[in-house]
Design brief:
CATH topology of the largest domain: TIM Barrel
Shape: elongated
Structural class: alpha/beta
Oligomer: single chain
Strand content: 15-25%
CATH architecture of the largest domain: Alpha-Beta Barrel
CATH superfamily of the largest domain: Aldolase class I
CATH class of the largest domain: Alpha Beta
Radius of gyration: 21 Å
Number of helices: 11
Distance between the termini: 38 Å
Number of strands: 14
Largest sheet: 10 strands, mixed
Strand order of the largest sheet: 3-4-5-6-9-10-11-12-13-14
Protein backbone atom coordinates (compact mmCIF):
# COMPACT_ATOMS: atom_id res chain seq x y z
CA UNK A 1 0.00 0.00 0.00
CA UNK A 2 1.41 3.38 -1.05
CA UNK A 3 1.93 5.66 1.99
CA UNK A 4 -0.06 8.85 2.00
CA UNK A 5 1.70 12.15 1.26
CA UNK A 6 2.13 14.58 4.16
CA UNK A 7 1.11 17.98 2.78
CA UNK A 8 3.09 19.77 5.47
CA UNK A 9 6.27 18.71 3.68
CA UNK A 10 5.30 21.02 0.79
CA UNK A 11 5.97 24.70 0.27
CA UNK A 12 3.18 26.48 -1.60
CA UNK A 13 4.86 26.02 -5.03
CA UNK A 14 5.47 22.34 -4.25
CA UNK A 15 1.83 21.92 -3.20
CA UNK A 16 0.76 23.52 -6.47
CA UNK A 17 2.78 20.93 -8.36
CA UNK A 18 1.34 18.10 -6.25
CA UNK A 19 -2.24 19.14 -6.96
CA UNK A 20 -1.46 19.83 -10.62
CA UNK A 21 -0.39 16.19 -10.84
CA UNK A 22 -3.90 15.36 -9.66
CA UNK A 23 -5.45 17.56 -12.33
CA UNK A 24 -6.35 20.39 -9.93
CA UNK A 25 -6.25 24.13 -10.55
CA UNK A 26 -3.44 26.20 -9.07
CA UNK A 27 -5.71 28.23 -6.78
CA UNK A 28 -6.77 25.04 -4.99
CA UNK A 29 -3.26 24.77 -3.56
CA UNK A 30 -3.55 28.24 -2.06
CA UNK A 31 -6.87 27.34 -0.47
CA UNK A 32 -5.47 24.16 1.07
CA UNK A 33 -2.24 25.88 2.16
CA UNK A 34 -4.17 28.60 4.01
CA UNK A 35 -6.38 26.04 5.70
CA UNK A 36 -3.32 24.16 6.93
CA UNK A 37 -1.29 27.09 8.25
CA UNK A 38 -3.75 29.88 8.97
CA UNK A 39 -6.69 27.78 10.19
CA UNK A 40 -4.60 24.92 11.63
CA UNK A 41 -6.80 22.36 9.89
CA UNK A 42 -6.25 18.82 11.16
CA UNK A 43 -8.26 17.14 8.42
CA UNK A 44 -9.69 17.78 4.97
CA UNK A 45 -13.29 17.75 6.23
CA UNK A 46 -12.58 21.10 7.88
CA UNK A 47 -11.85 22.76 4.50
CA UNK A 48 -15.37 24.00 3.86
CA UNK A 49 -14.55 26.23 0.87
CA UNK A 50 -13.37 23.36 -1.32
CA UNK A 51 -15.64 20.76 -2.82
CA UNK A 52 -16.55 17.54 -1.02
CA UNK A 53 -15.17 15.63 -3.99
CA UNK A 54 -11.75 17.26 -3.66
CA UNK A 55 -11.76 16.74 0.09
CA UNK A 56 -12.50 13.06 -0.40
CA UNK A 57 -9.81 12.73 -3.05
CA UNK A 58 -7.21 14.40 -0.84
CA UNK A 59 -8.15 12.16 2.08
CA UNK A 60 -7.38 9.11 -0.05
CA UNK A 61 -3.87 10.22 -1.03
CA UNK A 62 -2.67 12.73 1.56
CA UNK A 63 -2.54 13.55 5.27
CA UNK A 64 -2.06 16.66 7.39
CA UNK A 65 0.33 15.63 10.16
CA UNK A 66 0.51 17.11 13.65
CA UNK A 67 2.66 16.81 16.74
CA UNK A 68 1.39 16.54 20.27
CA UNK A 69 3.62 17.13 23.26
CA UNK A 70 4.52 14.09 25.33
CA UNK A 71 5.70 16.28 28.20
CA UNK A 72 5.75 20.00 29.03
CA UNK A 73 7.79 21.60 31.79
CA UNK A 74 7.28 25.25 32.75
CA UNK A 75 9.82 27.22 34.74
CA UNK A 76 9.18 29.96 37.24
CA UNK A 77 10.44 32.49 34.67
CA UNK A 78 7.81 31.45 32.11
CA UNK A 79 10.10 29.26 30.01
CA UNK A 80 8.31 26.20 28.63
CA UNK A 81 10.06 23.08 27.44
CA UNK A 82 8.20 20.69 25.13
CA UNK A 83 9.04 17.09 24.31
CA UNK A 84 7.48 15.90 21.06
CA UNK A 85 7.02 12.22 20.26
CA UNK A 86 7.66 11.71 16.53
CA UNK A 87 5.72 8.44 16.42
CA UNK A 88 8.69 6.24 15.52
CA UNK A 89 10.20 5.83 18.95
CA UNK A 90 12.13 9.09 18.75
CA UNK A 91 11.51 12.49 20.30
CA UNK A 92 12.76 16.08 20.01
CA UNK A 93 12.48 19.19 22.12
CA UNK A 94 11.39 22.79 21.64
CA UNK A 95 11.75 25.64 24.12
CA UNK A 96 9.49 28.68 24.41
CA UNK A 97 11.15 31.71 26.01
CA UNK A 98 9.10 34.80 26.86
CA UNK A 99 11.35 37.82 26.27
CA UNK A 100 10.17 41.35 27.00
CA UNK A 101 6.57 40.27 26.56
CA UNK A 102 7.28 38.55 23.24
CA UNK A 103 7.69 34.83 22.74
CA UNK A 104 10.77 33.31 21.14
CA UNK A 105 10.59 29.64 20.16
CA UNK A 106 13.71 27.52 19.82
CA UNK A 107 13.05 24.49 17.61
CA UNK A 108 14.92 21.32 16.65
CA UNK A 109 16.02 20.16 13.20
CA UNK A 110 17.39 16.66 13.86
CA UNK A 111 17.01 13.73 16.22
CA UNK A 112 20.37 13.91 17.93
CA UNK A 113 23.39 15.53 16.28
CA UNK A 114 26.48 14.41 14.39
CA UNK A 115 28.66 17.41 15.25
CA UNK A 116 29.90 16.00 18.59
CA UNK A 117 30.67 19.33 20.26
CA UNK A 118 32.26 18.46 23.61
CA UNK A 119 30.03 20.69 25.73
CA UNK A 120 26.70 19.86 24.05
CA UNK A 121 24.25 17.40 25.62
CA UNK A 122 22.41 16.77 22.34
CA UNK A 123 25.62 15.48 20.79
CA UNK A 124 25.70 12.63 23.29
CA UNK A 125 22.57 11.19 21.64
CA UNK A 126 24.39 10.91 18.29
CA UNK A 127 22.54 11.55 15.03
CA UNK A 128 19.55 9.25 14.54
CA UNK A 129 17.86 11.00 11.64
CA UNK A 130 16.88 14.31 10.12
CA UNK A 131 13.52 15.86 10.88
CA UNK A 132 11.19 16.25 7.93
CA UNK A 133 9.96 19.66 6.85
CA UNK A 134 6.60 18.77 8.41
CA UNK A 135 8.19 17.85 11.75
CA UNK A 136 10.02 21.17 11.86
CA UNK A 137 6.97 23.36 11.18
CA UNK A 138 4.76 21.17 13.36
CA UNK A 139 6.80 22.16 16.42
CA UNK A 140 5.76 25.76 15.83
CA UNK A 141 2.13 24.89 15.24
CA UNK A 142 1.93 22.65 18.31
CA UNK A 143 3.36 25.35 20.57
CA UNK A 144 1.01 27.97 19.11
CA UNK A 145 -1.87 25.61 19.88
CA UNK A 146 -0.65 25.17 23.46
CA UNK A 147 -0.33 28.93 23.95
CA UNK A 148 -3.93 29.43 22.87
CA UNK A 149 -5.10 26.76 25.32
CA UNK A 150 -2.75 27.81 28.12
CA UNK A 151 -1.65 31.46 27.77
CA UNK A 152 1.57 32.29 29.63
CA UNK A 153 0.98 33.41 33.20
CA UNK A 154 4.35 35.14 33.31
CA UNK A 155 6.09 37.15 30.61
CA UNK A 156 9.68 37.64 31.66
CA UNK A 157 11.40 40.96 31.02
CA UNK A 158 14.86 39.94 29.89
CA UNK A 159 16.86 40.15 26.67
CA UNK A 160 18.70 37.42 24.81
CA UNK A 161 19.94 39.26 21.75
CA UNK A 162 17.34 37.88 19.38
CA UNK A 163 16.09 41.40 18.67
CA UNK A 164 18.28 44.34 19.58
CA UNK A 165 16.04 46.89 17.91
CA UNK A 166 18.02 47.12 14.70
CA UNK A 167 16.02 46.75 11.52
CA UNK A 168 13.01 46.32 13.78
CA UNK A 169 9.36 46.72 13.03
CA UNK A 170 7.18 48.00 15.83
CA UNK A 171 4.11 45.89 15.42
CA UNK A 172 2.47 47.06 18.63
CA UNK A 173 1.02 44.88 21.40
CA UNK A 174 0.97 41.16 20.73
CA UNK A 175 -1.22 38.37 22.01
CA UNK A 176 0.43 36.29 24.74
CA UNK A 177 -0.17 33.36 22.37
CA UNK A 178 1.82 34.90 19.52
CA UNK A 179 5.26 33.57 18.62
CA UNK A 180 7.45 36.50 17.65
CA UNK A 181 10.82 34.90 16.88
CA UNK A 182 11.90 31.47 15.65
CA UNK A 183 15.42 30.26 16.27
CA UNK A 184 16.72 26.98 14.89
CA UNK A 185 19.03 26.33 17.81
CA UNK A 186 17.46 23.25 19.36
CA UNK A 187 18.50 19.65 18.90
CA UNK A 188 20.61 19.06 15.80
CA UNK A 189 22.67 21.13 13.37
CA UNK A 190 20.21 22.94 11.06
CA UNK A 191 22.67 23.25 8.17
CA UNK A 192 23.22 19.48 8.27
CA UNK A 193 19.56 19.13 7.23
CA UNK A 194 19.12 21.94 4.72
CA UNK A 195 16.97 19.89 2.35
CA UNK A 196 14.23 20.00 4.99
CA UNK A 197 15.17 23.20 6.85
CA UNK A 198 15.01 25.45 3.78
CA UNK A 199 11.43 24.52 2.79
CA UNK A 200 10.41 24.73 6.46
CA UNK A 201 11.71 28.31 6.61
CA UNK A 202 9.97 29.10 3.32
CA UNK A 203 6.69 27.96 4.93
CA UNK A 204 7.44 30.04 8.03
CA UNK A 205 7.95 33.27 6.08
CA UNK A 206 5.27 32.70 3.44
CA UNK A 207 2.53 35.33 3.71
CA UNK A 208 0.01 32.55 3.10
CA UNK A 209 1.76 30.20 5.51
CA UNK A 210 2.92 30.89 9.06
CA UNK A 211 3.34 34.59 8.18
CA UNK A 212 6.57 35.21 10.09
CA UNK A 213 8.88 38.04 9.12
CA UNK A 214 12.21 36.80 7.74
CA UNK A 215 13.94 39.15 10.16
CA UNK A 216 12.39 37.11 12.97
CA UNK A 217 13.88 33.78 11.84
CA UNK A 218 17.42 32.89 12.94
CA UNK A 219 19.40 29.86 11.81
CA UNK A 220 22.27 28.73 14.01
CA UNK A 221 25.26 26.72 12.85
CA UNK A 222 28.41 25.33 14.36
CA UNK A 223 30.22 26.27 11.15
CA UNK A 224 29.38 24.16 8.08
CA UNK A 225 30.90 26.52 5.54
CA UNK A 226 29.53 25.13 2.22
CA UNK A 227 26.04 24.91 3.71
CA UNK A 228 26.29 28.52 4.95
CA UNK A 229 26.85 29.53 1.35
CA UNK A 230 23.83 27.52 0.19
CA UNK A 231 21.60 29.01 2.89
CA UNK A 232 22.69 32.51 1.84
CA UNK A 233 21.87 31.78 -1.80
CA UNK A 234 18.48 30.18 -1.25
CA UNK A 235 17.15 32.20 1.71
CA UNK A 236 19.33 35.32 1.91
CA UNK A 237 17.14 37.33 4.29
CA UNK A 238 17.12 35.18 7.42
CA UNK A 239 19.42 35.86 10.35
CA UNK A 240 22.60 33.87 10.87
CA UNK A 241 23.98 32.84 14.25
CA UNK A 242 27.37 31.14 14.42
CA UNK A 243 28.35 29.06 17.44
CA UNK A 244 31.98 30.15 17.77
CA UNK A 245 32.96 29.26 21.36
CA UNK A 246 36.72 29.47 20.90
CA UNK A 247 39.23 32.02 19.59
CA UNK A 248 42.00 29.65 18.51
CA UNK A 249 41.94 26.70 16.14
CA UNK A 250 43.71 24.61 18.77
CA UNK A 251 40.88 24.98 21.32
CA UNK A 252 38.09 24.90 18.74
CA UNK A 253 39.50 21.68 17.24
CA UNK A 254 39.28 20.18 20.72
CA UNK A 255 35.75 21.22 21.69
CA UNK A 256 34.16 21.44 18.21
CA UNK A 257 35.36 18.76 15.76
CA UNK A 258 33.78 20.65 12.82
CA UNK A 259 36.69 23.10 13.09
CA UNK A 260 39.06 20.45 11.77
CA UNK A 261 37.19 20.60 8.46
CA UNK A 262 36.40 24.33 8.46
CA UNK A 263 38.92 26.22 10.62
CA UNK A 264 38.37 29.72 11.91
CA UNK A 265 39.80 31.50 8.87
CA UNK A 266 37.38 29.74 6.49
CA UNK A 267 34.44 30.12 8.86
CA UNK A 268 34.94 33.84 9.38
CA UNK A 269 35.36 34.40 5.63
CA UNK A 270 31.98 32.68 5.11
CA UNK A 271 30.44 34.91 7.80
CA UNK A 272 31.79 38.01 6.08
CA UNK A 273 30.33 36.89 2.74
CA UNK A 274 26.90 35.89 4.10
CA UNK A 275 24.27 38.12 2.41
CA UNK A 276 22.62 39.93 5.31
CA UNK A 277 20.34 42.81 4.28
CA UNK A 278 20.30 46.31 5.70
CA UNK A 279 21.92 46.85 9.06
CA UNK A 280 21.58 43.28 10.24
CA UNK A 281 24.53 41.51 11.82
CA UNK A 282 25.90 38.02 12.25
CA UNK A 283 25.30 36.83 15.81
CA UNK A 284 28.31 35.09 17.30
CA UNK A 285 27.30 32.71 20.05
CA UNK A 286 29.99 32.13 22.60
CA UNK A 287 29.41 29.46 25.24
CA UNK A 288 31.61 30.44 28.18
CA UNK A 289 33.34 27.44 29.73
CA UNK A 290 34.83 28.09 33.15
CA UNK A 291 38.63 28.23 32.99
CA UNK A 292 38.66 27.18 29.33
CA UNK A 293 37.66 30.13 27.12
CA UNK A 294 36.52 32.85 29.53
CA UNK A 295 39.63 34.99 30.06
CA UNK A 296 40.32 38.55 28.95
CA UNK A 297 42.84 37.15 26.47
CA UNK A 298 39.98 35.20 24.90
CA UNK A 299 37.90 38.38 24.77
CA UNK A 300 40.73 40.24 23.05
CA UNK A 301 41.15 37.51 20.44
CA UNK A 302 37.39 37.36 19.87
CA UNK A 303 37.26 41.10 19.19
CA UNK A 304 40.10 40.79 16.67
CA UNK A 305 38.48 37.83 14.89
CA UNK A 306 35.11 39.48 14.29
CA UNK A 307 36.10 43.15 13.95
CA UNK A 308 35.64 43.27 10.16
CA UNK A 309 32.25 41.49 10.20
CA UNK A 310 28.96 43.24 11.13
CA UNK A 311 28.52 41.51 14.45
CA UNK A 312 26.82 41.13 17.77
CA UNK A 313 27.82 38.68 20.47
CA UNK A 314 25.71 36.41 22.65
CA UNK A 315 27.66 35.30 25.69
CA UNK A 316 26.15 32.07 27.02
CA UNK A 317 27.39 30.88 30.42
CA UNK A 318 27.72 27.11 30.23
CA UNK A 319 24.77 25.19 31.65
CA UNK A 320 26.31 22.30 33.58
CA UNK A 321 24.85 18.86 32.98
CA UNK A 322 25.59 15.37 34.21
CA UNK A 323 28.42 13.55 32.50
CA UNK A 324 30.16 16.66 31.17
CA UNK A 325 33.50 17.78 32.59
CA UNK A 326 33.07 21.48 31.81
CA UNK A 327 32.08 23.98 34.48
CA UNK A 328 30.12 27.22 34.42
CA UNK A 329 32.22 30.41 34.43
CA UNK A 330 32.31 32.62 37.50
CA UNK A 331 30.20 35.75 37.62
CA UNK A 332 33.40 37.80 37.72
CA UNK A 333 34.70 36.18 34.53
CA UNK A 334 31.38 36.75 32.74
CA UNK A 335 31.22 40.40 33.79
CA UNK A 336 34.84 41.11 32.82
CA UNK A 337 34.44 39.48 29.39
CA UNK A 338 31.19 41.37 28.78
CA UNK A 339 32.67 44.70 29.89
CA UNK A 340 35.75 44.32 27.69
CA UNK A 341 33.59 43.95 24.57
CA UNK A 342 31.04 46.61 25.55
CA UNK A 343 33.81 49.12 26.21
CA UNK A 344 34.97 48.57 22.63
CA UNK A 345 31.53 49.21 21.17
CA UNK A 346 30.54 45.62 20.48
CA UNK A 347 26.83 44.84 20.87
CA UNK A 348 26.87 42.17 23.57
CA UNK A 349 24.12 40.26 25.31
CA UNK A 350 24.95 37.97 28.19
CA UNK A 351 22.16 35.44 28.00
CA UNK A 352 20.54 34.94 31.36
CA UNK A 353 20.09 31.33 32.37
CA UNK A 354 16.51 30.47 31.49
CA UNK A 355 14.46 27.58 32.77
CA UNK A 356 16.96 26.89 35.53
CA UNK A 357 14.34 25.04 37.55
CA UNK A 358 13.39 22.74 34.66
CA UNK A 359 15.33 20.60 32.16
CA UNK A 360 16.89 23.63 30.55
CA UNK A 361 19.67 22.38 28.28
CA UNK A 362 18.78 20.81 24.93
CA UNK A 363 18.30 17.10 25.52
CA UNK A 364 17.79 17.21 29.28
CA UNK A 365 14.04 16.56 29.22
CA UNK A 366 14.44 13.81 26.63
CA UNK A 367 17.26 12.24 28.63
CA UNK A 368 15.37 12.50 31.90
CA UNK A 369 12.28 10.75 30.54
CA UNK A 370 14.34 8.07 28.79
CA UNK A 371 16.23 7.35 32.03
CA UNK A 372 12.91 7.19 33.89
CA UNK A 373 11.61 4.65 31.36
CA UNK A 374 14.76 2.54 31.79
CA UNK A 375 14.41 2.59 35.57
CA UNK A 376 10.71 1.69 35.39
CA UNK A 377 11.43 -1.16 32.97
CA UNK A 378 14.16 -2.54 35.21
CA UNK A 379 11.92 -2.36 38.28
CA UNK A 380 9.06 -4.25 36.64
Amino acid sequence: MTPKTDLKNFTLPALEQFLKGHGKERFRALQVFKWIYQQDAHGFDEMTNISKALRAELAETAIISNLESEAIEEGSDGTRKYLFNLGDGHAVESVLIPIEGRNTLCISSQVGCAMACEFCLTGTFKLTRNLTTAEIVNQIMAVKRDLVRNPPALLADVADGGDDGEDSDDEGPESPAAIRNIVLMGMGEPLHNLDNVIPAIQIMIDGNGLQLSNRRVTVSTCGLVPEMSRLGREIPNVNLAVSLNATTDELRNRIMPVNRSYPLKELLKACKEFPLPGRRKVTFEYVMLGGINDTLEDAKRLLKLISDIPNKVNLIPFNEHEGCEFKAPTRAAIDAFHKYLIDRHVTVITRDSRGGDISAACGQLKGKLENKEIVETQSN
